[in-house]
């Protein structure tokens, strides 16, 4: 048998061994921890309105009030309440600061995307303007000029004279500016 050699006590007809005594002690310690945690939870809360309605408080004399408050209010409890309130506000501030930084990063990304879209739109607009003001024969030459090709390359690829290509390049530069 497991605990055959351990001492036991017979109390009121019940045999209490070491194992049972240890279990009772563990249960008592757990209950004590539960009570302490419950009291700590309610420590920082202000008194409720129902408590103030139940028993009216009669103001004692100033000397008696100071003595009563000094004996009732434990300095550890006040320090704990202040520390927990400070830590709570610091946690909230840290969370808000992180969220604000994340939102700022997202706004910066959106601004970059918007600038890229704006640049693309302006280039497309320049292409459209170039093709609308030039005859259809010179449409390809005008698009190449807006894209930044030189007159010699435009003349060679589009099959037009170099002088015509230079005119198209000059026209494209004047419309972009």
Structural key phrases:
7 helices; single chain; mainly alpha; 177 residues; rod-shaped
> How would you classify the helix and strand content by structural class?
mainly alpha
Low-confidence stretches: none
Count of alpha/pi helices: 7
Report the C-alpha radius of gyration, rounded. 43 Å
Percent of residues in beta strands: under 5%
Topology pattern, helix = H, strand = E: EEHHHHHHH
Transmembrane segments: 20-38
Coiled coil: 93-120
Keywords: Coiled coil, Membrane, Transmembrane, Transmembrane helix
Pfam families: DUF2802
Outline of this structure?
By secondary structure, the protein is mostly helical. Helices cover 75% and strands 5% of the residues. The protein contains 7 helices and 2 strands.
What report would you give on this structure?
The mean pLDDT is 80. The chain is mainly alpha-helical and 177 residues long. It is rod-shaped, with a radius of gyration of 43 Å. The protein has a two-stranded antiparallel ribbon. The chain has a domain at 9-41. Helix 4 packs antiparallel against helix 5, helix 5 runs antiparallel to helix 6 (151-158) and helix 6 (151-158) packs across helix 7. A hairpin with a 2-residue loop joins strand 1 and strand 2 (14-17). The chain contains 7 helices and 2 strands. It starts with 7 loop residues before the first strand and ends with a helix. Residues 93-120 form a coiled coil. Keywords: Coiled coil, Membrane, Transmembrane, Transmembrane helix. The chain crosses the membrane at residues 20-38.
């Amino acid at each position: 048998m497991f605990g055959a050699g351990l001492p036991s006590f017979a109390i009121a007809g019940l045999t209490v061994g070491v194992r049972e005594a240890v279990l009772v002690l563990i249960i008592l310690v757990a209950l004590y921890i539960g009570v302490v945690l419950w009291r700590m939870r309610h420590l920082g809360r202000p008194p409720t309105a129902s408590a103030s309605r139940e028993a009216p408080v009669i103001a004692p004399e100033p000397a008696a009030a100071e003595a009563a408050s000094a004996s009732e209010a434990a300095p550890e409890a006040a320090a704990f309440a202040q520390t927990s309130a400070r830590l709570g506000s610091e946690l909230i501030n840290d969370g808000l600061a992180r969220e604000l930084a994340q939102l700022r990063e997202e706004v910066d990304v959106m601004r970059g995307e918007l600038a890229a879209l704006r640049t693309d739109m302006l280039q497309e607009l320049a292409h459209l303007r170039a093709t609308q003001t030039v005859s259809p024969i010179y449409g390809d030459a005008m698009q190449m000029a807006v894209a930044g090709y030189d007159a010699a390359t435009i003349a060679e690829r589009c099959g037009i004279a170099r002088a015509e290509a230079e005119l198209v390049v000059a026209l494209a530069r004047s419309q972009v500016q």
